[in-house]
Amino acid sequence: MIAGAAAFAAAVPGARRAFADPGAEKKTGLVPLIHITDLYHPPQDPDDHIDLATVAALTEYDLKGVVLDATWKFMHAAPDGFDVRRDPGFIPVTQLGYILGRSIPTASGPIRPLTHPHDTAIDRPTEEQGGIRLLLDILDDARETVVVSAVGSARTLTAAFNREPALVRSKVRAVLLNAGSTAGPKREWNVGLDPEAYKGLWASGLPIHWYPCATEKSAFNPDHERGTYWKTTHAAIFRHLSPPLRAWFAYAFQGNSRVDVIGALAEDVQPEAWNTLLAQERNMWATVSLVAGAGRVLANTPRGWRFIPSAAAQRDTVWPWRLDSIAAAVDADGVVSWDVGEGSVRLFGRKRGPGFGEAMAEALASLLGTLPC
Question: H-helix or E-strand containing 297?
Answer without folding.
Answer: strand 296-301
